[in-house]
Amino acid sequence: MSLPSRHALVPFVSVDHMMRLVLHVGIERMMLELADAIEADFRRWPDFDKTPRVASHSDIGVIELMPTSDGQQYGFKYVNGHPSNTRQGLQTVTAFGVLADVATGYPVLLSEMTILTALRTAATSAMAAKWLAPRDARVMAMIGNGAQAEFQALAMKAVCGIEEVRLYDTDPAATRKCAANLAGRGLRIVSCTTAEDAILGAQIITTCTADKQYATILTDNMVGGGVHINAVGGDCPGKTELHRDILLRAGIFVEYPPQTRIEGEIQQLAPDHPVTELWQVITGQTQGRTDAAQVTLFDSVGFAIEDFSALRHIHQRLQGAQFFQDLDMIADPDDPRDLFGMICRADLHSSVA
């Protein structure tokens, strides 16, 4: 049986490949590169197709598709969110993604995105904080110390210069895990027993929880002026982390309003409550933080353009590297009109051997 042609082969980045690539580049360096790639695509935001992600909700979680295109390349991510998975020893979030050539429709990359989503989520948070947080921010509170926490802390260190991270989780074991993983990485780590303790002295407050049981993480009296809140969470209808009164006095910045109003913190507000799209701040069309005492909020829900940016960056990073394998994914008959004949002419014995 003849070998697949080059048109049939699609680079595949496995979990092992992704881990080796990240360690090869360096975690913080990868965060910086992804933040730059995402910011570059935010600067050309109008070039992209945009739609709220296609979500299939159940009583125990959600499965979503997140597509976008800039007219040259097309990308999508499959991702789930199942908070109860951890009780079975499973990940809350898993994902994979595809990058394709618009001109032919052929995929050019298939990649794991469980790790890549963690990286791009943190890189997006840090990119937003660069534009919205107080310029002298050096202390970060990390409320929710699960799978995303270390990524958030290191991205804020790499992009924004954070020096101290104050940790809190309702599960002390999660805080111990996070503190151990961050030890020796150039951050002062303070483990806290309450959320109130964690936010003391913090200029950046990141909330990142998944369980709907703990709906209100920050109450209005906990948040003083001059802070930036990065609300990550496990966004979906009904899932919020901030008390409504915080939203009413904050400058709110979002990715794509039609999606954020369904899934983000602002689902608590009127449909016409004013928000600012982050890309407009980055391109200088509008102002970000207006004064030192302002409370800014990045109501982060994750948007397909960020995944597109991450896939595009990984695809570029693979050039001249060996952190992938070629998969025989695309049928490529000698005559494109004779797919049936390709099957009939296959040498099954040779293929099995």
From TrEMBL:
It is an enzyme of class 4 (lyase). The keyword DNA-binding does not apply. Keywords: Lyase. Pfam families: OCD_Mu_crystall. Gene3D superfamilies: NAD(P)-binding Rossmann-like Domain, ornithine cyclodeaminase, domain 1. GO terms for molecular function: ornithine cyclodeaminase activity. Its EC number is 4.3.1.12. PANTHER family: KETIMINE REDUCTASE MU-CRYSTALLIN. NCBIfam families: PRK07589.1 (NF005762). This is Ornithine cyclodeaminase. It comes from Roseinatronobacter bogoriensis subsp. barguzinensis.
